[in-house]
Amino acid sequence: MAKIKDKNREIVFNKLQECKKLRGEWKKCVEKALKKFEGTEKGKLYKLHFEQHKAIIPVCMELYISQRTFHSWRNEILDAIINQAMYDRLLEP
């Protein structure tokens, strides 16, 4: 499992690891946050890594990106979900 320093980022990351189990308010929150990434490479990263549970290296190879870019994009996705979760009052600021 990846080490994540930020507490809210860790909470969201763990929720996304159980992507198939997302229900209710969290599911709506993630869907709202991901609209920003629809049709982009970052959206593909989300689907490959969190929905299809592909490991980092295969995702990087499929998207032709470095591991550094993978982590940067993943963190951007997590931050968008965190911001939406705070707006929806699922997380505290």
Task: Describe the protein.
With 93 residues, this protein is mainly α. 67% of the residues lie in helices and 0% in strands. The protein has five helices and no strands. It has helices at residues 7-17, 24-34, 41-51, 56-63, 67-87. It is globular, with a radius of gyration of 13 Å.
Reconstruct the topology from this structure.
Blueprint: H1 7-17, H2 24-34, H3 41-51, H4 56-63, H5 67-87
Keywords:
93 residues, mainly alpha, globular, single chain
Tell me the overall shape: globular
Structural class category: mainly alpha
Order of helices and strands: HHHHH
Integer average pLDDT: 86
Query: How many helical stretches?
Result: 5
The major β-sheet equals: none
Radius of gyration: 13 Å
Helix content: 55-70%
Taking pLDDT < 50 over at least 5 consecutive residues as the criterion, the unreliable ranges are: none
Binned strand content: under 5%
Find the count of extended strands (DSSP E, 2+ residues).
Answer: 0
Cα-to-Cα separation, first versus last residue: 25 Å
Provide a short characterization of the protein structure.
This protein has 5 helices and no strands. The protein has helices spanning 7-17, 24-34, 41-51, 56-63, 67-87.
